[in-house]
Amino acid sequence: MKNQLHRIDLEMFEGPLDLLLFLIKRDELNIYDIPIAKITKDFLEFVNLAKELRLHSAGDFVLMAATLMKIKARMLLPIEADGDDEIEDPRTELMNMLLEYKRYKEATTTFSEMERSERPHYYHIPATWSPHQEDNTAILEDVKLYDIMLTFQYLIKNYEEPATHSVAVEEVTLSEQVGFLSGLLQANAKLSFAGLLEKFESRLVVVVTFLAILEMLRNRQVKVKQSKLFDDLLISRGSTFGN
Amino acid sequence: MEINELKQIVEALLIATPEPLTETRFHTCLGDSVSKIPLQEVIRELTTDYEQSGRAFFIKEVAGGYQIVTNGEFEPYIKGLFSKSGKLRLSQAALETLAIVSYKQPVTRNDIESIRGVSSDSSLRTLLDRKLLEIRGREDGPGRALLYRTSTEFLQYFGLNSVKDLPRLREVEDILAEDDQELV
């Protein structure tokens, strides 16, 4: 029961910096002169009690614990004053991180307030279909890189390699696939990516072809459209096609 | 063209526009029928009309253009149109990530994580899925990390005209001084 309480407590914090800021505030510590021994002890206590750390942030807490112990050790070492060199306080880097993080953490209050005040307002959104679309499969014109990546992930997941056992070196290059696509686009105004997939016999060819599309997209040799997320990609000639 | 005719045209454009209507887009839509009256003025006239006739919506200046949005008081009814009860809110982690991107953009994931001191993969993914952030190219340095920026949807979500309208990021000294006052 006690453990569970602490687990929940740690989940309140967005990360080790957040926990440190909490400890500093709770004990009214001076952020510019952090009592490192005390804060290390409190920090470790928190982390040790929380045995079931969320996996994705556990590493961040452990890393901070190590950093704190390193700073503590360095502060215990006698200071070797060699000449005029000013000796940097071992806490400086941590202090700067805390201060920087604090600024953004504070800013989230503003974002929360803006979010709350915008919540009750709903935008007028026109129907997505309009008779002026070139064809009603291409509604989303402004396809972003992220959308394309998601689509690729989705399509390749459903792509099963035919179960054959030939051992052959597949040689497929990016420029070959660029040439292949250019050829197809000479003959067809539009290509469907899903349609292309059906023609290929290995994942490697699919991946290289996808890279070729990205390359051609970058050079504006092709345009890519998508009607909705995860839907097929429609490839057509771009502004520099054939140059 | 007369103001009354223009008012009707702008109203029609606002109803049909899929994104904030900008001055430039407005002139493109008008085509040959040139207007000497700026969009801003037509909007002002329409706003007055709406206020006087007690409409349930108003014209909002957002993301560098104009869009029609409903008045806040109708939220309880509008909610019924959607299956989820009310709009989803962003988590603290997502808000922190968003705050860092909006003040420091373009940024890499590494920039975000070194400020937050915690892995920010999942909040980045949430924000990308909700289209509040977008990927805008890659960094020149080694590794060519992806660069993140805020989107038009971000401005709409927070009701901003531009990222320049964000309140200035406060200095640490101010925040600390306020903390001290709270303690007293």
Description:
The complex is a heterodimer of chains A (243) and B (184). In chain A, helix 2 (16-26) crosses helix 5 and helix 3 (36-49) runs antiparallel to helix 4 (55-76). Chain A has 243 residues and is mostly helical. Helix content of chain A is 55%, strand content 5%. Chain A has nine helices and three strands, in the order αααααααβααββ. By secondary structure, chain B is of the alpha+beta class. Chain B has two domains: 3-76, Orthogonal Bundle (Arc Repressor Mutant, subunit A); 92-183, Arc Repressor Mutant, subunit A (Orthogonal Bundle). Chain B has nine helices and four strands, in the order αααββααααββαα. Chain B has helices at residues 3-16, 23-30, 39-53, 75-78, 92-104, 109-116, 121-129, 152-157, 172-183; strands spanning 57-62, 65-70, 133-138, 146-150. In chain B, the strands form two sheets. Chain B has a two-stranded antiparallel sheet. In chain B, strands 3-4 form a two-stranded antiparallel ribbon. In chain B, helix 1 (3-16) packs across helix 3 and helix 5 (92-104) packs across helix 7 (121-129). Chains A and B meet through helix 2, helix 4 and helix 5 of A and helix 1, strand 2, helix 5, helix 6 and helix 7 of B.
Q: In terms of quaternary structure, what is this?
A: heterodimer
Query: Rg of chain B from C-alpha positions?
Result: 21 Å
Bin the helical content of chain A: 55-70%
Structural class of chain A: mainly alpha
Indicate the topology.
The complex is a heterodimer of chains A (243) and B (184).
Chain A: H1 2-11, H2 16-26, H3 36-49, H4 55-76, H5 92-118, H6 145-157, H7 174-187, E1 190-192, H8 193-199, H9 203-218, E2 222-226, E3 233-237
Helix pairs in contact in A: 2-5, 3-4, 7-9
Chain B: H1 3-16, H2 23-30, H3 39-53, E1 57-62, E2 65-70, H4 75-78, H5 92-104, H6 109-116, H7 121-129, E3 133-138, E4 146-150, H8 152-157, H9 172-183
Antiparallel strand pairs in B: 1-2, 3-4
Helix pairs in contact in B: 1-3, 5-7
